[in-house]
Amino acid sequence: MLPDVLAGMRLPVLCAPMFLVSGPELVIAAAKAGVLGAFPAPNCRTTDELDAWLGTITGAVDSPWALNLVTHRTNTRLADDLRLVAEYRPPVVITALGSPAPAVEVVHAYGGLVIADVVDLRLARKAVAAGVDGLGLVSAGSGGHTGHLSPLAFVPAVRSFFDGLLVVGGGVADGAGVLGGLATGADLVSIGTRFLATAESRAVPEYKRMVVDHGPDDLVISAAVTGTPASWLRPSLDAHGIDPAGTPAGGRAYDSANPAARWRDLWAAGQGLGLVTDAPPVAEVVDRLESEFRTALDRLVTRPPHPGGTAGSSRPAGTTS
């Protein structure tokens, strides 16, 4: 069950926070379309810029939205970012690449929700112990910093020890995928690449075109850019002479004060890019997602019963009229 702050959403979808792609325009458009918009704090080069973005969003929408914070120890700006969190009170804070503990006390003090992005069960248990309200299960197929577990295995495994909010992502780009994510036991489904190619996205036109023109076979998982395995568009790495088997000099670094130094022109995507064929406004994407979701649900509910099922039943096992 969704928390009250998220209960009024049109679709149970998170417009995923995407590095150097998500800005106020995308967050506001997503919120107005009825889904949960989000942006990463490192997309702002300075604390003053983050202050301005937060002010723009809070002044434009009265529906839920989310801020994504990098809580890795290399992020020298985290204390300043948290000060702004306390001031602007985003309804949801999504932590990534580090312990969620620094954010929990600040966000809970004003009644907000903390969701920790995790890529495996060990990190999921640590985040639960830190007191988060939800977990973002970054599964195989996700763009950017990606996971390796199938959502079909990841979600039920986490459900065995956590009954809080679960967000699952990994290769979802249409409404049928949203329904599939909910069927695993998740409460929200994260979609990134489909929203990357939209009018409100800050991705440069060449990036959007590469997403539209390429498919899953053009992706490569590599730690060569950030030091952490991520899903990249291979033509982007090739264009800059990046060896996917290499590692970055200096190891991992996620400092919000210098977010674009290594990978500003290196482009990530998830496995859903094969379903992305255009770059319309966010509102049109959400309209399509809702239509596809309802079509997929109708198809599931009205499908003929399995030969071994109860005669005359037109619903899958476990559903009621």
TrEMBL record:
Keywords: Flavoprotein, FMN, Monooxygenase, Oxidoreductase
Gene Ontology MF: a single term: monooxygenase activity
InterPro entries assigned to the protein according to its UniProt record, in alphabetical order: Aldolase_TIM, NMO
Ranges of Polar residues composition bias in the record: 312-321
Span list, region Disordered: 299-321
Top-rank lineage group of the source organism: Bacteria
SUPFAM superfamilies: Inosine monophosphate dehydrogenase (IMPDH)
PANTHER family hit by this protein: BLR1330 PROTEIN, NITRONATE MONOOXYGENASE-RELATED
Homology family: Belongs to the nitronate monooxygenase family. NMO class I subfamily.
UniProt-recorded name of the protein: Nitronate monooxygenase family protein
Organism of origin: Cryptosporangium japonicum
